[in-house]
From TrEMBL:
Annotated Mannitol dehydrogenase C-terminal domain residues: 250-352
Protein name: Mannitol dehydrogenase family protein
PANTHER family for this protein: ALTRONATE OXIDOREDUCTASE-RELATED, MANNITOL-1-PHOSPHATE 5-DEHYDROGENASE
UniProt keyword Oxidoreductase, yes or no: yes
The species this protein was found in: Mesorhizobium liriopis
Length: 381
C-alpha cells in the first residue's frame, strides 16, 4: 500500500491494460496540459501475484509506459508516453480500510472495468449497509454499495460513477444492481435516495484496441481512442480530452462500433474458420489475402453501408468504415483471429443478427443473412 499523502479524486476499480491506455492515459495528458484533475487510485480486486507486481508499479512516481503505435491518415506513428496519472495502487482485500478512507474522503469519480461479468451478485447475497464492514463483500456491486453507504454516513456528497464495462446501458445497469442489492439488504430510504439521486451513474462506450501488455504495468495501444459518455443532469467529467465526448445518445456510437468494427472482425473470423488458415493469423495478415479482403470490402460496401444509409447514418458510417480499415491494417497490431473467433456464434448473434434486425428489411443483406442463418444452425457451419 502506498503511503502517499496526495489526494486522489479518481478511484478506479480494475487494473486492466485497457484502462491504463485509456482513461488513465487521458487523465495523464490532461494533467500535462495543466488541467487540475486526477490523480488516480487504482484498486485491484484480489491479491494475485500479477496484481501485486502491478500495484507496486502504480505506486512508482516514475509512472508506467504506454506505446501508441499505428496509422494516422495513412502515416505510421509511434509515440512513447510515461503515464503518471496513477499515483497509488491498493488491493481491495488487503487494504480495505484504506480503500474506505479514500472513497469517503477523497473520491469524486469512480471508474470501473471489471469485465462483463463484474456486475453480477452471488445469489442470495445480502450486505449490511449500516455496519462498518471490516472486510470487503464479494462482487464489485456489493463493494460499491458498502463504500457508498460509508460515504453517506460520513455526510459526503454524491459522486460520479463511470463504468466502462461492455454492457448495454452500463451506468443504468450498474445503478440498478446496486439499488436492488441495497433494497434487498434492508438499506434505509435515505441511503437509497443518496445512491439514486445524489450519485450519477453515467452510461458510456469505450473504443480503443490495446493489443499488448507491458510488465509489470503499461501497454501498447492504437492511436484511435474514444470515450463517449451520455449526457445527463449533474454529470461532470474527470478531465477534458479530445477522445472524451459527451453526447446526447450513445446509440449511434454503439451501432457504428458493433455493426462495423465488431461485425468486420466477425466476418474475417468466419472466413478464417472456413478456410483452414494458420492458428496465429492476425487481422492485418488476413487482409493481405485478396479473397478475404474482397469479402470484407464487399460486405461493407454492398450491405453495411446501404443499411446505415437506410437508417439515416450513411455519412457517419462511411467515415467509420474508412477509419476501421485503417485500424485493421495497423502494422504494429497483432490481433489474432483465433481470439476474435471465441464465442463465435454469440458474436454473430449480436453483431450480425442485431444489424439485420435494426435495418429491418430497409436494405438487402444477403451475405449477412446467410452468415447469420449459418450461426443459427440452419446451414452447416
Amino acid at each position: 500500500m502506498s503511503t502517499t499523502s496526495l489526494s486522489t479524486p479518481v478511484i478506479q476499480f480494475g487494473t486492466s491494460r485497457f484502462l491504463q491506455a485509456h482513461a488513465d492515459f487521458f487523465i495523464h495528458e490532461a494533467r500535462e496540459e495543466g488541467q487540475d484533475v486526477g490523480p488516480v487510485t487504482v484498486v485491484a480486486g484480489s491479491g494475485s501475484a500479477g496484481n501485486r507486481e502491478r500495484l507496486a508499479a502504480f505506486n512508482d512516481p516514475a509512472g508506467y509506459p504506454v506505446i501508441v503505435r499505428g496509422l494516422e491518415d495513412g502515416d505510421k506513428i509511434e509515440r512513447h508516453v510515461q503515464v503518471r496519472s496513477v499515483t497509488r495502487g491498493i488491493d481491495a482485500e488487503a487494504d480495505w480500510a484504506e480503500l474506505k478512507r479514500i472513497f469517503v474522503d477523497e473520491a469524486r469519480f469512480v471508474i470501473s472495468n471489471t469485465t462483463e461479468t463484474g456486475f453480477t451478485v452471488p445469489d442470495g447475497l445480502r450486505v449490511d449497509p449500516v455496519a462498518d464492514c471490516d472486510a470487503p463483500p464479494p462482487s464489485f456491486p456489493a463493494r460499491l454499495l458498502v463504500l457508498l453507504a460509508a460515504r453517506h454516513r460520513a455526510g459526503r456528497a454524491g459522486l460520479v460513477v463511470l463504468p466502462t464495462e461492455l454492457v448495454g446501458r452500463n451506468g443504468e445497469t450498474l445503478r440498478g444492481v446496486v439499488l436492488g442489492l441495497a433494497r434487498s439488504s434492508g438499506a434505509s430510504e435515505e441511503l437509497v435516495r443518496f445512491i439514486a439521486d445524489d450519485c450519477v451513474f453515467a452510461d458510456s462506450l469505450v473504443d480503443r484496441i490495446v493489443s499488448t501488455p507491458l510488465e509489470p504495468a503499461g501497454a501498447v495501444a492504437e492511436p484511435y481512442a474514444l470515450w463517449a459518455i451520455e449526457r445527463k443532469p449533474k454529470l461532470t467529467l474527470p478531465c477534458a480530452h479530445p477522445a472524451i465526448r459527451v453526447v446526447d445518445s450513445l446509440e449511434p456510437f454503439e451501432r457504428l462500433k458493433i455493426h462495423i468494427l465488431n461485425l468486420g472482425h466477425t466476418v474475417l473470423a468466419d472466413w478464417w474458420l472456413g478456410h483452414g488458415r494458420p492458428e496465429g493469423l492476425t487481422v492485418r495478415e488476413i487482409l493481405e489475402d485478396p479473397e478475404a479482403w474482397a469479402r470484407l470490402d464487399g460486405i461493407y460496401g454492398r450491405e453495411v453501408l446501404p443499411g446505415f444509409r437506410a437508417k439515416g447514418m450513411g455519412d457517419e458510417a462511411e467515415l467509420y468504415v474508412a477509419t476501421t480499415l485503417e485500424r485493421f491494417r495497423n502494422p504494429f497490431l497483432d490481433h489474432r483471429l483465433s481470439d476474435i473467433a471465441t464465442n463465435h456464434a454469440a458474436k454473430i448473434e449480436k453483431r450480425v443478427g442485431g444489424f439485420i434486425a435494426w435495418v429491418g428489411g430497409a436494405a438487402a443483406l444477403p451475405e449477412l443473412e446467410t452468415l447469420f442463418q449459418k450461426s443459427q444452425g440452419y446451414v452447416a457451419a
